[in-house]
Amino acid sequence: MHRSGQTPLYRAMNLEKHLGVEKIFLKLEGNNPTGHKDDRIAEAMIRFALAKGYRKIFVHGSGAFLRSIMYFVEGTELAVFGAKVLGNTFMKKYPSISWISFKNVEVVNLVETLEKYSDENDMFLITEWERNPFVRNLALQEITEECIDRVNQPTKIWVQGTGGYTLKSTYQELVRNWIKGTIDNIPEIYCAVHEKNLGQHVNEMDFQENISQTKAKLQEVDDKSINAAVKLLNKLEHITVTASEAYALAALLSTKEELQGNNIVILNDGRNDISIKEISKNRDLNKTQIVEWTRTLLEPYHDSVEETSDAVQKAIDQGFIFTAAYGQEIQGVCVVVHMGFEDFIPTYHLAYIGVKKGNKGKGIATELISQAVEKTGGKLSLHVDIPNGKAKKLYEKMGFVHTYNRMLYKG
Fold this sequence. Notes:
Elements: E1 9-11, H1 13-19, E2 23-28, H2 38-51, E3 56-60, H3 63-73, E4 79-84, E5 98-101, H4 107-120, E6 124-127, H5 134-150, E7 156-160, H6 165-180, E8 188-194, H7 198-202, H8 205-214, E9 217-221, H9 223-237, E10 239-240, H10 247-254, E11 262-267, E12 271-272, E13 274-278, H11 287-297, H12 305-318, E14 320-326, E15 329-338, E16 348-355, H13 364-376, E17 380-382, H14 389-397
Parallel strand pairs: 2-11, 3-4, 3-6, 4-5, 7-8, 7-11, 8-9, 16-17
Antiparallel strand pairs: 1-2, 10-12, 13-14, 14-15, 15-16
Helix pairs in contact: 2-3, 2-5, 5-6, 6-8, 9-10, 11-12
């Protein structure tokens, strides 16, 4: 199962009302494990390195990029080497990386030098500024694929322009879906860049080539518009995003064009304020309240009080109960019971998962299921109604496979 991806596509209804526009969806990449879209790249690159039989990787990038890499390295036997270059201030944070100095190499020749070094030492190079980002682009294309799964006819998409990777992968996935007939038209893409970096981008051949190929509209933003966007989003939607990753939102808010149809903004580290807690081992747990929450959130498909109470007690004794909340207000619940087996059938069963109405697209169910999978080590089964195609699609995306049909004796 992938640990990254399947991030929320959040319908920003309060922002829509504030702007007086139709629909705005926010892709919250901050809900990845380390809080950034880089997790998608890191997981794909680590899996690729392992598949190719490498035992050593050579890493180079920003602090956020290395944080993602090291998260997905954990649990593998990969030895990690890093490029020590001018400006690195985060080496002490990663004592498990063997640092190799490249301080005297000019910036324009750095990536080429790192490629040569890694080849000579049988290392797999993972750099934030690679020249042939094939695997990276495939990983980032999943962002757009997940958006189209929810909004199958996007009208406009806003991305942040730095290296141009997200821009190119977004366009490639849109074209792929247009060829398949999944979408009727290729949406307009807006690429947001900071006014301070515009001159730099103009002189970058790769970036200009990406702009030309995708026919993206370049939009300048400044510190004032970025900070205003960050504050407005937090005030209206309780979503946090750092100023350094809020360019796309600032571009949407400052656009002078009509915002009809489905508008999608990709926020590289945007995340909502959902808190997921395991409460099954709390001493002051109120079983009656858990049963009430579960039945209310599952209406009109809830089981009887007796059945629900039985499952909740089983989860308290030998399982897990997770809640999702905004502040103190419960928005979702997940009840996982122990089945008493180790190998015959999955050890755990997801008995109930319910989310409060009005939370569609906020990723609450995904977050709860992810916690359940992590806690059970993936030894987890669940039941889904055959007509419930949307739920089945979500479960399949998260790694569940349809293996048999459940039948109950009715006499």
